[in-house]
Design goal:
four-stranded parallel β-sheet; globular; binds N-(3-carboxypropanoyl)-L-norvaline; 314 residues; alpha/beta; five-stranded parallel β-sheet; 13 helices; 36% helix; 11 strands
């Protein structure tokens, strides 16, 4: 592993998943790997789980961690190549990333999409600049199109809770009040369509089709109730349209995940990456039910990050 930005960087996911389960069973058993090492974390956007779980992951490995909130704590960074910097930006991303690489052994970076320029977002223009200027391995803490540490934690969560060898996993769109990135669903599809013991179904209203690059062989079902039938896992997430880029095409409240839909499943477990808008995306009753995995899932963010840092530092 050279960088970690997508499912493809995971290599053999079975090997990586087994490593994560091994690390979870023995979280402090790998401190020789992180000794005298530093994990740097840069956030261009807000974070709760990613920031804290990544710091904890570094500590578990015996490494140190620093966090920079770009723009808020640092100079305002210029992204454009060849810019004449006589405006509001004070330091070029080229210099900032090269300098930060001097201060760490692995660099984690979070950048969000514009949701206005699809080409720029899907070409990962900002993240690719960071990859170009970094001189240490880079980990995506969510890019413009993907959130691989989340998906890896989701895979750990399903693997350690699955009731049978084969399981049906359903990714469902749910309503929201703001236009959100496609990163979490893209990434979830990128990972789960590759897992050979998962029957993977995606359900969403018309117009919310994700980029086919990530959904590959996934079954798309426009009828949410039909999709939920017999599901072992329901993974809810809102996203804005990829087709009508960044637009909200529906706020149909009947898509909110509620006990009514969960009753159609095979005693289905409920998952969400968080943060979640309660009683908009999913009802309190589902979030607080014994079948809700949201806290275990968030806990596994430590082990997905720790496993990836372990692979990059070892
Ligand atoms: C982000 C997203 O990609 O959907 C981060 C998820 C890990 N979520 C949000 O931005 C939610 C913001 C809101 O207003 O609820």
């Amino acid at each position: 592993m050279k960088n970690f930005t997508s499912f493809a960087d995971a290599g053999d996911y079975k090997v990586l998943l087994n490593k994560a389960l091994e690390i979870k069973a023995n979280p402090y058993g790998y401190q020789h790997v992180g000794k005298n090492k530093t994990v740097g974390l840069i956030f261009f956007n807000p974070s709760l789980r990613t920031r804290l779980s990544s710091v904890k992951a570094a500590y578990n490995l015996g490494a140190q961690a620093w966090v920079l909130n770009a723009g808020a704590d640092s100079w305002t960074l210029e992204m454009a190549d060849g810019a004449v910097m006589n405006g509001g930006t004070q330091e070029h991303i080229k210099d900032a990333i090269a300098v930060m690489s001097q201060y760490c052994d692995v660099l984690g970076v979070r950048t969000f999409p514009t949701l206005t320029n699809r080409e720029e977002d899907y070409d990962e223009v900002v993240f690719n600049k960071i990859l170009r200027y970094a001189t240490v391995p880079v980990v995506s803490l969510e890019s413009a199109t993907l959130h691989p540490l989340q998906s890896f934690a989701d895979l750990i969560t399903v693997a350690e809770t699955k009731p049978t060898d084969r399981v049906k996993v359903v990714l469902t769109w749910a309503p929201h009040v703001r236009a959100l990135p496609q990163c979490v669903p893209n990434s979830f599809a990128d990972w789960f369509s590759e897992v050979d013991w998962v029957d993977f179904v995606i359900t969403h209203p018309q117009g919310y089709e994700l980029d086919k690059r990530f959904t590959k062989g996934a079954r798309i079902e426009y009828d949410q109730s039909k999709a939920f039938e017999g599901a072992d896992y329901i993974y809810a997430k809102n996203w804005s349209s990829y087709r009508d880029y960044g637009q909200i095409l529906s706020s149909n409240p009947s898509w909110m995940v509620d006990e009514r839909q969960m009753a159609l499943t095979n005693n289905g477990r409920f998952m969400h990456c968080l943060p979640v808008r309660r009683n908009v995306v999913v009802s309190d009753a589902v979030l607080d039910s014994p079948n809700s995995l949201i806290i275990q899932e968030a806990g596994n963010r430590v082990f997905s990050a720790q496993t990836v840092f372990h692979e990059l530092l070892k």
